[in-house]
Amino acid sequence: MSSTHEGGDQIDLGEAARQLEMAAHDARVAASCIGLGDLDEAHTHAILARAAADGAQNLLAAAIAAGVTVPL
Length: 72
Hints:
2 helices
C-alpha cells in the first residue's frame, strides 16, 4: 500500500509492514540461535532485526511527518 502526500512523493507503507515482518522473523531466528548455542548467528540476526525495525520506523516517521492518512 503506497500513499501520496501533499508533495507528490509516494511513501510505501506496505514496505514498512514488510520491514516489520522481517524484523520479527529475524528476532525469532536470533532467539532460536541462542537456544542452539550459536551466538555468532544470533548476533547477526539481532543486527538484521534492528536494521529492519529501523527501516520501518523511518518510513512511518516520514509518513507521519508528511501527514499521510490511511483509510480504514
